[in-house]
Amino acid sequence: MIDWAYQNVIIRGFESGLKRRKTFPYWRELESSQWRSRRDIESLQVRRLRVLLNYCNTYCRWYRDRWAQHGIDVHGISSLADLRAFPITTRAMMRDNAADIRSSQNGIGFVSKATGGSSGAPLRFLIERDANDRRVAAAFRGYGWAGASPGTRQSHLWGVNLNPMSMRRRMKEHFYARLLYRRDLLNSFQMSDSNAGGYVERLNRFRPKVLVAYANPLFVLARAIDERGISVHRPESIIVGSEKLYEHQRALIERVFGSPVYETYGSREFTLIAAECDHHQGLHVTSENMIVEVVDDQGNAVAPGEEGQILVTDLYNTAMPFVRYAIGDRAVAAAGDCSCGRGLPLLEKIVGRQMDVLRLPDGRNLPGAFFPHLIKDISSVRQFQAVQTQPDRIQLKLVVDESWNADDGAELRRRIINTIGESSQLEIRRVDRIDLTAAGKLRVVVAYPDHRTVRQPRIAG
Ligand SMILES: [Zn+2]
Hints:
Elements: H1 2-18, H2 23-33, H3 38-59, H4 61-69, H5 91-96, H6 98-101, E1 110-115, E2 123-128, H7 129-145, E3 154-158, H8 167-180, E4 183-187, H9 196-206, E5 210-214, H10 215-228, E6 237-241, H11 247-257, E7 261-267, E8 271-276, E9 283-285, E10 290-295, E11 307-314, E12 325-333, E13 346-353, E14 357-359, E15 365-367, H12 370-375, E16 381-390, E17 393-400, H13 406-420, E18 425-430, E19 445-446
Parallel strand pairs: 3-4, 3-5, 5-6, 6-7, 16-19, 17-18
Antiparallel strand pairs: 1-2, 7-8, 8-9, 9-13, 10-11, 11-12, 12-13, 14-15, 16-17
Helix pairs in contact: 2-7, 3-4, 9-10, 10-11
The site of zinc ion has 6 residues, from loops.
């Protein structure tokens, strides 16, 4: 009842009345469109895609020129497959050509945002206002699948803004988070093995219906609870996002909290891209608002069940359109439909951020994923980061617990040298903590800067 009142009276009044946003009507539309057939949803996408591409051709000089160079007929779109003729847009292109990608239409309303530099340089971009309402609506829906509609009591273990805030700003944030959306914000930046108890106390006091968290700090918290046998409040569901969630992490989190985990996938550029429903057969794509492709390095669609890089086309953001934008993450597209009956296609799994590739002095490329694969078997390592400090020098920083011994170090060294060879120097260094990115994420592999543009080759397992 309280949840209902929050959602339908307070939040709706704020969004629709005070802010004059269309979030609630769009949300209602999405709640209905998700049950339409796959075919219906695709024809909706094609219709909208035609409008978008025409718009870009008229108002965005960079797209117009580029497509003309590629000899593309912008008006010849009759199916989703026709989009594959269009060239891929990279983050560097968006950044370097921002002025000509921005719409030249007069009087267009927008909000301005930026992505952090967790995978290289930051990007500033614009979102048209109406498109922004649509994505907030899509986030309401996707979180709703996990029982976290707006207004439900939630604790967020999340990267909290590090910049010093003015009093006014602090009050505003408090209003939004605590009073309007009933969220208790726990700073994931401060999370560590040693202070986990304080976080548990706060969860036990606030008693959230849903716990929303970054994958890594939540895993650290779950591990500490497990090892110390602390009793913790059981939320109805747990939503994990923003960082790659590994299967072993998911298993531990579900066991320790006794609640189902819902994985979500989103980004600053597009908000919620995909999320799990309660059938847990993959992540449903927000297809009414965007087209998500999984492609190989040449931009051709990969078969369902195979891994590829993700391209996103935002169907509504005209202020600064993203067309076939390589977001830098990899995923596996699913073959079948979800048994829940929603027509929204599934991503079988998010493989994760396209990790840095280390170019070795002998000319080989070492996929960043090598390190997590190797280290997950060594239980005394709590956290790690591999940094290529020089073209021929790799520093592996480790946060370890008391079960760490010299054998672990020797074994780790042996296995790494086995793979990288003798041409790189390897330094294994124990540290107290590893710094997070400005967005609060852990960047596990950092290549020597000149080499960052190299693509990650496919790796097994
Ligand atoms: Zn489903």
